[in-house]
Amino acid sequence: MMKLVIWDYDGTIARTHDAIVYSLERALSEAALPVQDPAKISALISLGLGLEDTVKQLTDHVNPDEVTTRYRDIYRLEGWRYETPFPGLPAAISEIATRGIDQIVLSNKGTEAVEDAMRRFGLSSTLSMIIGADPRLKRKPDPMVFNTVIRDKYPDITSQEVVVVGDTEADIKFARNIGAKSCWAAYGYGDKEVCSALEPSIVIQKPEEILSSLDLLL
Q1: What pLDDT does residue 91 have?
Q2: Cα 50 to chain center, whole Å?
Q3: Is the N end or the C end of the chain the one with fewer CB atoms within 10 Å?
């Protein structure tokens, strides 16, 4: 019996690709840096990297803080308009909540951006925690956030009672690193060949199938 679902956000709960590309291109342009080929940005998105690491990959800018700060401002003010929840995801998350199963969103995205999105999607009340990028915590797939923040809130839940739902290799590896079941959202942005080779516990090909797929674990 699963007692806790840990959701990724980008490419799992919501289509955010266009919002990320738009905000990155604007931020790079305003910093007088070359605007990168969208295909290169897409390749980095598929890895599930955090913003800082993505910016470092896109430019050799000595101080990436200017770009990351401006990116977050652009995303908050404009970029969010380009993101939408995948079909069936809000209903699935709401249904899981009615079953008394706790749910967390764990993202390498900024916490404020995820919180804003959950409010827009009407899902804030269904979640027990939203954990975004935090300089004090190592990012997925490192198990640090589970072993400290999540374990502290749920000391009686074992790893075997946790399922991690995400679209990139970082999510599947995170599940493996904490001893949890992995549910790969193959409809998202992750590299298909790489993610498949990691042999996730369950594969979801279409977002509309997520609840029926999770029912196999829940």
Answers
A1: 95
A2: 10
A3: N
The pLDDT of residue 61? 59
- Say what the pLDDT of residue 62 is: 57
| DSSP states along 31-44 | TT-PPPPHHHHHHH
Residue 215: is its pLDDT beyond 90?
A: no
Q: What is the mean pLDDT of residues 56-66?
A: 74
> What is d(CA 206, CA 59) in angstroms, rounded to the nearest whole number?
34
- For residues 138, 116, 53, 184, the Cα torsion angle rounded to the nearest 10 degrees is 70
Structure tokens that stand for 51 in this block: 């913003």
What is the rounded distance in angstroms from the CA atom of residue 98 to the CA atom of residue 117? 21
Instruction: Decide which of 5 and 33 is more confident.
Output: 5
Separate counts of helices (H) and strands (E) for the chain? 11, 8
Give the distance between the most distant pair of CA atoms in the chain. 53
153: number of Cβ within 10 Å = 12
